[in-house]
Specification:
The complex is a heterodimer of chains A (113) and B (112).
Chain A lengths: L3 E3 L4 E4 L4 E7 L4 E9 L6 E6 L4 E3 L2 E6 L4 E6 L8 E10 L5 E5 L3 E6 L1
Parallel strand pairs in A: 2-11
Antiparallel strand pairs in A: 1-3, 3-8, 4-5, 4-9, 6-7, 7-8, 9-10, 9-11
Chain B lengths: L3 E4 L2 E4 L5 E7 L5 E8 L3 E10 L2 E4 L6 E3 L9 E3 L8 E8 L7 E2 L3 E5 L1
Classes of the chains: A mainly beta (113), B mainly beta (112).
């Protein structure tokens, strides 16, 4: 089982739609969680951190469910410019005690006009 | 503004050659990381450093080395380039072990 798993998509949605991505992780000791956005052939850019209480930034809402070990990202009122790959990232201690940043393989989103 | 840069942005080299990829950050971050990204694998950690003179192996470190002589730079060296090392390489830095990472623009390396 992969340490961080995401549905690769692509999710094809019309402009204005609401779309949600989930990501599951296997290490129950994971401590911090993030969503990154990556455009084709570019570097990943931080979209938002994910907190236990959930957090919202404009049209984007992130939630963490520690009991079920998943995080989610909700995008409301999708724009053409939201088309990208969304990477789920989980950070936690590994067996040697060091922190390890684990990336999911990403979910592709295409917003259609 | 603080930033993280990588050079070269594109590199073509031959099998067996030594190659060094540069990474420079002006965030004054202690933590720096090198990843490679290949289709179907996502980002995989090659080496990382938590400070000057500190280096650690990641999950795909074979054939790569790093050194950290100052806070700003973490060069990645491919000792003897192999075709399997054709990839996009990203450098990143962070201010804390659990905090967000900031990425450089990447280096696209082709080994022929």
């Amino acid at each position: 089982r992969k340490e961080v798993e995401q549905d690769p998509g692509p999710f094809n949605v019309p402009e204005g739609a609401t779309v949600a991505f989930n990501c599951t992780y296997s290490n129950s000791a994971s401590q911090s969680f993030f969503w990154y956005r990556q455009d084709c052939r570019k570097e990943p850019k931080l979209l938002m951190s994910v907190y236990s209480s959930g957090n919202e930034d404009g049209r984007f809402t992130a939630q963490l469910n520690r009991a079920s070990q998943y995080i989610s990202l909700l995008i409301r009122d999708s724009k053409l410019s939201d088309s990208a790959t969304y990477l789920c990232v989980v950070n936690g201690r590994n067996r040697s005690g060091t922190y390890k940043y684990i990336f999911g393989t990403g979910t592709r989103l295409k917003v259609l006009a | 503004d603080a930033e993280i840069t990588q050079s070269p942005r594109h590199k073509i080299t031959e099998t067996g050659r030594q190659v060094t990829l540069a990474c420079h950050q002006t965030w004054n971050h202690n933590n720096m990381f090198w990843y490679r990204q290949d289709l179907g694998h996502g980002l995989r950690l090659i080496h990382y450093s938590y400070g000057v003179h500190d280096t650690n192996k990641g999950e795909v470190s074979d054939g790569y080395s790093v050194s950290r002589s100052n806070t700003e730079d973490l060069p990645l060296t491919l000792e003897s380039a192999a075709s399997s090392q054709t990839s996009v390489y990203f450098c990143a830095s962070s201010g804390s072990a659990t905090g967000e990472q900031y990425f450089g623009p990447g280096t696209r390396l082709t080994v022929t």
